[in-house]
Amino acid sequence: MMETKAFVNWQAVQKILDKETTQGLSATLLFTRSGALLTSAGEVTDENIISALVAKMWESYKQVQASTNFILVECEEGILGVCGLGKFLVCVYSNSYQYPLGLLKAKIERLVLKLDKPLSCC
Amino acid sequence: GNGVRCAMSLVDSAVEKYLEEVAGRISGLLAIHLSDRDGITLAKTSSVESKVNIPSLSAAFASASEQAGKLNLGCNSHIILFAKDLVVVQVMHAPLVISFVGKSNLNIGMIKVMIPSIRDKLETIRDKVESIVASTS
Prior knowledge:
The complex is a heterodimer of chains A (122) and B (137).
Chain A: H1 10-20, E1 27-32, E2 37-42, H2 47-64, E3 68-75, E4 78-85, E5 88-94, H3 101-119
Helix pairs in contact in A: 1-3
Chain B: H1 2-23, E1 29-36, E2 41-44, H2 54-68, E3 76-83, E4 86-93, E5 96-102, H3 108-121, H4 123-136
Antiparallel strand pairs in B: 1-2, 1-5, 3-4, 4-5
């Protein structure tokens, strides 16, 4: 039987992203540390730009504070959270600035826990 | 550089006294720093020595805040950084960067509530920095 452990179960990853991008959240993005988008869920536009910008932001903070594990970005018209997961970055945002920051953080942390197993072979 | 520091020393003590008073009201807070976009510290509360490079964080924030404005989420208002045993809340009050450094249990909600009054209080120092930057450029 062929050993399949080396491969990422992308179907499972997509399913998790789709399921966790609940009401109030606009989109979830999964990308590499260099900003290359792997996949996304939700109603997303300009996802490549967002992943590139967020990856750059993460990197510049990481260079100053190596133990950075989560960044929350609050803007006038929405909020965004990004968390590291192995070789990847998980980013979730909402176009509603009223979406509770604490809830966004909790949801991302939960998402990262769920993604850990399917992505752990990377 | 020097011109900014000389002028700043005139307002330093009043600002730092105000920041100390604010800091006392926020649980989990270690320090408040006021710097310019390049990370040069203009005023700060006296704090326990910490392993955080706040000038570099302030410079990183100034650039990150500008980039965040391109995320289709409107202008950036705050960035909150979570690291091991550390939370940093940063706000732009152009051309000033305000950084709140705290422990993991930092009361972020309280900081957000206090930011508007802190901005009001810092209007005089902001105008001074702007005029110095304008006269030296």
